[in-house]
Please model this.
Amino acid sequence: MASSVFFGNANNGFQAGTIYGPVNTTFHLPPERPETPPPPSILIPFVRDADFVERGTTLGQLQQRCAAPDARAALVGLGGVGKSQLAIEHAYRTHKESPDTWVFWVHASNADRFRESYRSIADRVKIAGRQDPQANIFKLVHDWLCDCKQRWLLVLDNVDDAHFLLSGQAGGDGQGQTTNAQVIRKPLREYLPHCERGSIIVTTRHEAAALKLVERRDIVRVKPMDEAEGLALFKKKLGLQGNNSGVAELAAVLEYMPLAIVQAAAYILQRAPQYSVAKYLDEYRKSERKRTSLLNYDEGHLRRDWEAKNSIIVTWQISFEYIQQTRSSAADLLSLMSFFDRQGIPEDLLRPRTERQEAETNQTEKAEDDGDSNSEDDVSQSSAGDDEFGDDVVVLQSFCFISTDAGGTMFEMHALVQLATRKWLESTSKLEQWKQKFVSNLCAAFPTGEYENSAACQALYAHAKAAREQQPKDESSIAEWATVLYRAAWFAERSGNIADAETLAIKAMKARKKVLGQGHEDTLWSVAMVGLAYRLGGRWDDAEELFVQVIETSKKKLGADHPDTLTIMANLALTYQNQGRWDAAEELEVQVIETSKKKLGADHPHTLTGIGNLASTYQSQGRWKEAEELEVQVMEMRKKKLGADHPSTLTSMANLASTYRNQGRWDAAEELFVQLEVQVMETRKKKLGADHPHTLTSMNNLALTCINQGRWDYAEKLQVQVMEARKKKLGADHPDTLTSMANLAFTWKAQARSAEAIVLMRQCVQQRQQVLKAGHPDLTLSLRVLERWEVE
Model:
């Protein structure tokens, strides 16, 4: 039965009865009505930012490039660094300075949005033929721009993946639909016209994408703001006037990253007045989890595309995902780098550890291997590994996630990028995997804290401190982590960083107790390191308690004559010295020396250290001649064994000069003043640093020699320097700081500045009463001196 269709009163469209076979129908659209071309205008989906902050010469560079005929430029930088904001400001300035210039904005994150933007341009400028379903909208806009009599600026925003611009586009109706008879058109990149009257700006996170569209010379790198710019932006967003130290501090913490600053300002303002900059800063510093929570805030920016995230964390994680999909080995490299300190990341620690181990053992393996080795294969594998690593570095540099030093062997990255990477790893359940890899590589590279390893330790020290907050969960990895912290504590102690040494040693001790047990040798050494930090920090009773504990366990585990046991006994004897318990110190030191001579030999460094310690005890007891004999012996042996500029040799030389001075042998002391004390002080400055405790001791000794020579002004200058440096390095109430205070008081008294001397000595006595036990020789002496001065 045939069906019928009713079309109404009009006779429009296609009407047919029953048809058997194909039908070809042609629709004839009515001709387009002529449209009046509009005057040049600005087509940007964002309002101008009233809070815009000048970015040094960046806008100037952009303007200079765009002023040339047929100009192209690319703003390349991290996500959230302000590339689009610079492009927006440049666009508005361009149109204001030249109202006859067309300004267009193209969303170039993907093909669909690129097409939408081109269609918007066609509609705005009223291009004829744009309504035709078969029209190629890209060609229409391209041709219009080429024929345009006015100047124009085209901004391609967010070209982070340029692949869609390079592939051929299927022909169709101009809306993304195609017919059965598809025609492959040229790549979209070809629809970006070259025209003397036009200029094109590209914004992208990915340098490789930029290079698909512009020459390398046309890249303008956008870096985070400097201090003044970051502070200015923060104040504008918060509506603040004048100086605000909290804002400056927070801007620095956020590494002057514009998106992070805008995000933080929005967070604070939304919660005001109950919330403040100080509150945000306090919350930010509480933990890594709190930092990521604050930085995940996704509000506050009106001049970002709807696809772009306002959260700095999420913004970067989009790039992480892209790298993971396109080159997973580069994502792995970024993952590993995220745990290091942000600066001075050595290439050697980033390569697979097995390569380093093979390189270190290669010579021994060859000596034992009677078979032929395929050296050509070895070379090709190494070369391939170098190429892979180099390519990964190029990818990360292209996204502005890392940078290198001039030599290309040290890397650097923003702390916020590291934080975002770790957050991303946590979300993908890979955090522990890469944390363990970081710890393992660092443990393999970080040497023990002997003087000979100082340079290597210094290069890795910041990374060990970064590891302090990255304890793994796996027990074997915890053991490696504790080893890193212990060795770093050792180096910190040798470097005079007592506070760091204590913090690192305590963490290592707790971890080793947990995974190795109380009696394990490594645990004992960690406990001893904590004791050493306590002793150097003036916590002598705490140090004594730990040393006694370790000695008892070490005697049972290792034996009373084991070198490790003797070392800890020597540290306990030094603690007795600090406490003013000279007899106990002497008894223990003699015991250590005799056992060390039998076990290690008379010229062993441990034996010489013991002899030097005994000489120091003799000094404290006023037994100058005995002290001198031992110090000469130790100094000569150390010169032969270690060299004249070794820190231990310098200590011997300084101690001998001090003994001469205390004996009243001014002729000898004056000679040593030139030959020893100045030499020791200057060498220590070079080797250890100007604020190292040993360097400060040398300055103090030189001041005492100057006093004996009657050079009061120079002595006072040195003593003030030492006292202030010790306050900063050791603390205002450290026993060594109080010794400096007492020495300066004596100098002022000798200069007839009695009132000042009494005030300073009174302060010294009050502080010594708080930190020293009653009866301590230093406290007793200062009390006696103060009493005498006050009645004079």
In short: Confidence is low (pLDDT under 50) at residues 1-8, 170-184, 358-383. The radius of gyration is 37 Å.
